[in-house]
């Protein structure tokens, strides 16, 4: 069972890396002129891992994905932004997931995760730039989190629905 879970974590990490690369190849900011806006497809993997694996596994997938994506395609700054955003999103989604079905839908949890991700990135930007003025950008990012979290939540919900038809 341990080898199966390790292999699944490896596959999910690879999938998250591919999704991160695809997002960088086709930037959303070309269609929506908001600097730094991303769909957050790799967050689908994080939410999926939270629903199917242990929290520790989801955190490991996130950390490995953020680290490898920064090594292959980014910088120290992009690592900090992704790390702060990713960890805060993971924490918020992990806290809300037990309330799924009672208070929150999976899509609602995804939206909350997207908002937390943006808050984490603003926190990283405030540290890197040593300025609180960056926080003025947060309302625009939170507005985009509604749309992006909705999209990634629907993708994750659809994937989970189809996987329930398949036995591993």
Question: Could you walk me through the main structural features you see in this protein, from its secondary elements to its overall organization?
Answer:
The protein is mostly helical and 168 residues long. It has helices spanning 2-25, 42-52, 55-73, 76-96, 106-129, 138-163. Helix 2 (42-52) packs parallel to helix 4, helix 3 runs antiparallel to helix 4 (76-96) and helix 4 runs antiparallel to helix 5 (106-129).
Distance between the termini: 12 Å
Instruction: Tell me the total number of β-strands.
Output: 0
Portion of residues in beta strands equals under 5%
Report Rg: 16 Å
| Tally of DSSP helical segments | 6
Mean of all residue-level pLDDT scores:
88
Q: Helix and strand succession?
A: HHHHHH
Which structural class do you get from the secondary structure elements?
mainly alpha
Helical fraction equals over 70%
Principal-axis shape equals globular
Largest sheet: none
Unreliable stretches, pLDDT < 50, 5 or more residues? none
Task: State the gist of this model.
The chain is mainly α and 168 residues long.
Provide the descriptors you would attach to this structure in a database record.
168 residues, mainly alpha
Question: SSE layout and pairings?
Answer:
Elements: H1 2-25, H2 42-52, H3 55-73, H4 76-96, H5 106-129, H6 138-163
């Amino acid at each position: 069972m341990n080898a199966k879970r390790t292999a699944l974590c490896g596959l999910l990490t690879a999938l998250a890396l591919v999704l991160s690369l695809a997002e960088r190849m086709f930037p959303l900011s070309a269609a929506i002129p908001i600097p730094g806006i991303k769909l957050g497809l790799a967050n689908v993997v994080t939410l999926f891992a939270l629903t199917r694996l242990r929290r520790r596994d989801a955190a490991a997938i996130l950390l490995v994905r953020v680290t490898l994506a920064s090594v292959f395609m980014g910088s120290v700054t992009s690592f900090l932004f992704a790390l702060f955003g990713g960890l805060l999103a993971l924490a918020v989604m992990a806290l809300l997931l037990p309330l799924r079905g009672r208070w929150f839908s999976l899509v609602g949890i995804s939206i909350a995760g997207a908002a937390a991700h943006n808050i984490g990135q603003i926190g990283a930007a405030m540290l890197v730039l040593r300025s609180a003025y960056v926080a003025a950008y947060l309302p625009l990012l939170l507005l985009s989190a509604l749309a992006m979290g909705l999209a990634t939540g629907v993708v994750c919900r659809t994937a989970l629905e189809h996987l329930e038809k398949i036995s591993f």
